[in-house]
Amino acid sequence: MRLSRILVLWVAIAALALTACTNEASDGGGDSAPEGTSAPQAGGVTGRPVKVAFSAPGADHGWLKAITDNARKAAEDLDVDLVLSEGTNDSASQVSQVETLISQKPDVLVILPHEGGPLTPIAQQAMQAGIPVVNVDREFSTPAAFRTWIGGDNYGIGKSAADFIANELNCQGNVVEIQGVAGISVTEQRTKGFTDGIKRCNGGIKIVASQPADFLPDKGLQVMETMLQGQKDIKAVYTHDDDMAMGAVQAIRNANRQDEMFITGAGGSKDAMNLISEGDLYRATFLYNPSMSASAISLAKLIAERKGLTELVEPEVPSRIELPATTVTKENVASVQNLAY
Amino acid sequence: MAVDSPPRNALAGLRQVPIQELVLPVVIVALLVAGVIIKPDVFPTSDNLLNVLTQASITGIIAIGMTFVIATGGIDLSVGSVLAAASIAGGLLADNGTWMFMLGAVGFALLLGAINGLAITWGRVVPFIATLAMLTIARGLALWMSDKTPISLSELDILQRVGSGRVLGVPVPAIVFVLVTIAGWVLLNRTTFGRHTIAVGGNRSAARIAGIRSNRVVFAVYVLTGLCVGISAILLSGRLASASPVVGNLVELDAIAAVVIGGTALAGGKATVTGTFFGVITFALIFNLLNLLNMPSEIQGIVKGVLILAAVALQRRD
Question: In this structure, are residues B291 and A230 in contact, taking their beta carbons and an 8 Å threshold?
Fold first, then answer.
């Protein structure tokens, strides 16, 4: 109780200071909007760099590292004053991290939560205190906790993978699935999209085995090895992540069964794209692009400046932006290689 | 019965065999029988059983080192992170060939093991804390040295042959695991160092009075574990054809669990290398069976936990 009061107090102070700042800035401001952007509305930040606070889980694997790197680079390019904190891998410490960020009075808060649910209350407090929140990737449990959400399409990854595999196999054959971390929404969505997607084959494609390997390459290797023992007839391997799929690729090669099957990944890592351009075993990946953090920084800037997206008629940033799970195959890999991480 | 040395006469020996040492072989036989019944076409093939042994090898080799650490009453929580750090250290030297990779991996693991040993003996930090610190340091080093990106080792042919090759049809990692187990058994049961390890874990002041330099022994067991981790790092990187900073997650807990269900006392003073070997095999068989049955992974966690509880509860009886 006491803690939350202190918190609210801090948030209130932060908000007050922020309004003071913004007013001051707009008083002295008055420079014109850059060409091609819609005119700023009253109350937006002008005349000084927008201050964006960014919080994400510890960048301990490829995708999250790319998220942090892209955010940093976007801030540099857009001349945004970025306060970045990373390095928590549980929700409780990320909450305190966000509290610390709020105390630094950012114009906008960008959060990629470790888990959506537990980070929702603090985001909502920030919103109520007048700090707009940009939610990246894992969604908060209520829309009241974010000004705008940007993320990939997990269900779409499963759906696109199902479409791709169904086409390659003419709706006929055994498939094994290597999932991410069991019990999180990312994994559930990627599985659901896939099982829904192969329904159009009326049972022609069977998922004969499905096991989690926690997005880790060494677990991917182990799980795939055992699946290869258990299943003597596999036509395709659907995996939830490119890094993890590298372990599975190695297991298939070690067993010398690369001619029998192909594998698909998800995410869009450099290694995966290289293998795709070589062809054969690694046949596709589905983008879940970490460039979304760069877009989040630029959305944060637009929100602070009260501007909209140039190509849209509406003067404000939309409240949801879902990025498509683009299918990357040998045919189009060259055109998306610049997005690889 | 401090160590698993052969009994003087069969009858007395049988009575002295702790119930513990019979439990695991029985469990393993039960798992094998279950496998034959449930998956007769796949499970009992030599291919699959060698696969079990291969998968057990990475954690297994580490668990052999861990047996010595636990025998002294210590613990090493850092092994999973050191596994990753050693792989990366080797990976950074990979341009100079497989031998430099191996040297880098083993050397770095030995170094970190020695730091553990020094912190515990010279620095007088309790093992739990010293190795907990090393757990975070080594993971940090692995991520920092690799810039959080896996290093491809697909150019290293010899390394890949070590990781994925076979000698007379047996995968190399499985052979190395068996050799390390035999070496561990000899070291524990047939050498002065082994006797001293048990003595230091049993009663340190008595050991000191008996003229054993306990600090040297304690230092040595952490270095020994480092060596085991280094060997595992070579095998794992060979199997993955890459060095990744995120591998080895929670390997320390699997290794400790295997040592403990094997019958080595967490308090020290009592250790068995064969028990650890059986412990590792038990977990690998459970993973293999539940995976072949396509059981959800949470069931695996429950089965593993129940087994740890049951085995250690039985250990308390004797």
Answer: yes
Distance (Å, whole) CA A17 – CA A265: 47
Question: CATH number of the domain at A154-287, please?
Answer: 3.40.50.2300
Distance from CA of B74 to the nearest CA of A (A): 28
| pTM: predicted TM-score of the whole model, two decimal places | 0.77
Q: Could you read off the pLDDT of A183-236 as tens digits, one per residue? A: 778 899 999 999 999 999 999 999 999 999 988 999 999 999 999 998 999 999
Give the 3-state DSSP-derived string for B212-260, with helices as H, strands as E and coil as C.
Answer: CCHHHHHHHHHHHHHHHHHHHHHHHHHHHCEECCCCCCCHHHHHHHHHH
Most A-contacting residue of B145, B148, B156 (CB-CB within 10 A), to test interface? B148
pLDDT over 90, % of chain A: 53
Q: Flag if B245 and A209 touch (Cβ within 8 Å).
A: no
Domain ranges of chain B: 20-317
What ipTM does this complex have?
0.71
CATH number of B20-317: 1.10.3470.10
Residue B256 distance to chain A (closest CA, Å): 19
**CATH class as words, domain A2-27+35-152+293-323:** alpha beta
The contact set of B with A (CB < 8 A) is 39, 42, 45, 47-48, 51, 54-55, 58, 143, 148-150, 152, 164, 236, 239-242, 244-249, 287-288, 291-292, 294, 296-298
Over residues B34-64, the pLDDT tens digits come to 999 988 888 888 888 998 999 899 999 999 9
* CATH 3.40.50.2300 residue spans of chain A: 2-27+35-152+293-323, 154-287
